[in-house]
Amino acid sequence: MAPRKRPETQKTLEVAVRPKSKRSRSPRELEPEAKKLCVKGPGSSRRFDSGCLWAGLASLQVPPSCSIVRALHRHKLGKAVRPSLQQGLQQAFLHSLASYRIFQKAAPFDRRATSLAWHPTHPSTLAVGSKGGDIMLWNFGIKDKPTFIKGIGAGGSITGLKFNPLDTNQFFTSSMEGTTRLQDFKGNTLRVFTSSGTCNFWFCSLDVSARSRMVVTGDNVGHVILLNMDGRELWNLRMHKKKVTHVALNPCCDWFLATASVDQTVKIWDLRQVRGKSSFLHSLPHSHPVNAACFSPDGAQLLTTDQKSELRVYSASQWDCPPSLIPHPHRHFQHLTPIKATWHPRYNLVVVGRYPDPNFKSCTPHELRTIDVFDGNSGKMMYQLYDPESSGIISLNEFNPMGDTLASVMGYHILIWSQEEAGMRT
């Protein structure tokens, strides 16, 4: 069947909106400015998305030696494809966002959600941590109850969460309880990697490398600790003047480490050459405290999120060159899980929640709290997702490893976005 033709007036920059029922519509819902952003008519089916995909590929000049089917198969496996084909696939994906809807919601915690991680091999399974230290393993593709691990309550906030790449029935956590540990989903602690032993010091960030079998964690006073997976500490150094909000190992060269801090810097380290706090390769100053620093899936770029109104994209081959700056409102608030921008796992796209700020120069009246998608090269806004029934501030967004399902954290709520076919489930 030929793909359904999209209206000529529908631009690339859109907002996917599920119509709100009359019963729950508030008087101020969808003001005139917001109405302009609504997508009219029913969303697209997977058949339409497939049509978009082939329509996008039809315009490409693919060499005879390159089988589109083979290229799509390589893409599905996460392998590299020709740049022109990759661009076509990205455009097709952006078109498919018009059919994305929230089809699953959960609010399992009595405190806000603070971290999430997708299972590396099960595309419908993720783990979510809360400010009270609770952790939920949720396979939203089945009706069985999620696995739930009770936390300690106040003071137990899960600040970092990663599945163990060597055994995906286990996961690593860093927490305000003052530990970095390895646990299983029966609630057992398998190994404690770091423990402060006091409520004055806690751990704020975490990353893990399967290739080099390393665990790295940062604390609230600027220390970064590197350990092997047997729990042996390799070094413990104060690398920042203040809290280390994020640590990230490069996925392709895992001896490169990025650390972000509220001291308004992001630093790049070669783990083979760390001798002290001055042995960084590069220091990237920011105008405000920094919430996150994430390497792109191919390791070639670094995305940073400050605590006010700026995203930056650095080239890993040219750290000294000015970064690509993306103005974006996401200011910090004490009782809000910090907003962190992330990469799409397959495309050069940046995903981040919007916290409208009346002082932001491009702010418009009645601006919506959308999920914004930017092109990682140009910094151009490509799409905005929005659901009027879930209109809170969305702090965290992560696509699953397949790149076709989005998990979001909005206060106490966990939202799962997928295409219209999934959205029609009850």
TrEMBL record:
One of its GO terms (cellular component) is chromosome. It is found in: Chromosome; Nucleus. GO terms for biological process: cellular response to UV; DNA repair. WD repeats lie at residues 237-279. Pathway: Protein modification; protein ubiquitination. Gene3D superfamilies: 4.10.640.30, YVTN repeat-like/Quinoprotein amine dehydrogenase. GO terms for molecular function: damaged DNA binding. Keywords: Acetylation, Chromosome, DNA damage, DNA repair, DNA-binding, Nucleus, Phosphoprotein, Repeat, Ubl conjugation, Ubl conjugation pathway, WD repeat. The keyword Glycosyltransferase does not apply. Residues 1-33 are annotated as: Disordered. Its main location: nucleus. Residues 1-11 have a biased composition (Basic and acidic residues). PANTHER family: DAMAGE-SPECIFIC DNA BINDING PROTEIN 2 (PTHR15169), DNA DAMAGE-BINDING PROTEIN 2 (PTHR15169:SF0). Belongs to the WD repeat DDB2/WDR76 family. This is DNA damage-binding protein 2. The gene is DDB2.
